[in-house]
């Protein structure tokens, strides 16, 4: 009893200490389960969270950003990257505040989160009730499902540039089986080495794209006419919205930290680093190839084949496998909670129970192999709500009463010191993303998506493949 009382007292003055204590206990438990006392496996530091955020935020989307620039022009592309990056930082901050609010309220009620990973829908349920839980669960799961689908499509799209003996659909079957092995990775604690390697891989690819495009120089007769069509403009804009909407797994990454309160600074630093990858690479490739990119959603397809390009393709493939795990792990948690295996200590039992999650992802990747257009469709219809509108509305409703604001676990930040200013910013985000991101973006990206279906058909054997005598595709 005295131990419980101590924890309860500690929670008010120093939420960090309580969290650290509890997370360390969890770590010890996990160490004894796996008998792996390895630096490579257990991560909960601020550095681990930074690597997780930065490597998870940009993977295959790096290859589609030049395509987006060709749809909207250089200036709009750069401005919107910065704009949506800042919006992403702010909404990730809101999610972290709501997580800390939920956790501090629950811990005051003596609820223990040992062997339980808190997820975004549970935060919404605890703070705002069952309807919000249902909305959060629906949007988050659908987004993460399609996020995983996109990684699979990207794997097939990329490997084709090294080996075109097999068509992209066959490669999707193969990579679906490879990605199914992520069921054996228990939680975000265990992505320590993977997120570190993943960020190295995207950094290499981004700078390869930049340098290769500059060395290649502008193609003969290059044109930069965009923006020419509204449909293309808003399709490109929603792909950028999708790029900086990688914080659907924010809560799970925070929960894997020993000091979750530090997360709000981490996402800011991760996004600033991501800017150094996305802006130079997209600008350089668009400068070199211009409007040719309108028919090449994967930047690799225009760059000449070389050992450097093959290395970038292989590194991106490995990174997509990692990002597939990042997007799928929260889905695994949800499914485990449904079937009742979430608290079990057997990795094998958890892995077997997770397999049904991978099957629909595999199937959808084969139906819709439209690498590029699918990013924009997911961005406008799912990312807009999941990581921009819902967190902003949830924050406004959680702190609408004076008592909630007075007892808030996290006070307003120094750069937006008043609650009124926070409300104004949140309201502006909701309106902007709903009208521009969901409304115009949804119309544009679905128009473009339907055009791809009409052109290539569902279950397309080899999407955007050049006709060549050596391969079987049309």
Q: Could you characterize what this model shows?
A:
The chain crosses the membrane at residues 78-100, 137-159, 171-189, 196-219, 231-253, 265-289, 311-335, 347-371, 377-399, 420-444. Keywords: Amino-acid transport, Membrane, Transmembrane, Transmembrane helix, Transport. This is Amino acid transporter transmembrane domain-containing protein. It is found in: Membrane. The protein is 71% helix and 0% strand. It has 474 residues and is an all-alpha fold. Residues 1-35 and 469-474 have low confidence and may be disordered.
Keywords:
transport, 474 residues, disordered C terminus, AA_transpt_TM, transmembrane, disordered N terminus, mainly alpha
First-to-last CA distance: 72 Å
Instruction: Assign the structural class, choosing from mainly alpha, mainly beta, alpha/beta, alpha+beta, or little secondary structure.
Output: mainly alpha
User: What is the mean predicted local confidence, pLDDT?
Assistant: 78
Helix content: over 70%
What's the helix-strand series? HHHHHHHHHHHHHHHHH
InterPro entries: AA_transpt_TM
Main location: membrane
Protein name: Amino acid transporter transmembrane domain-containing protein
Organism: Hibiscus sabdariffa (roselle)
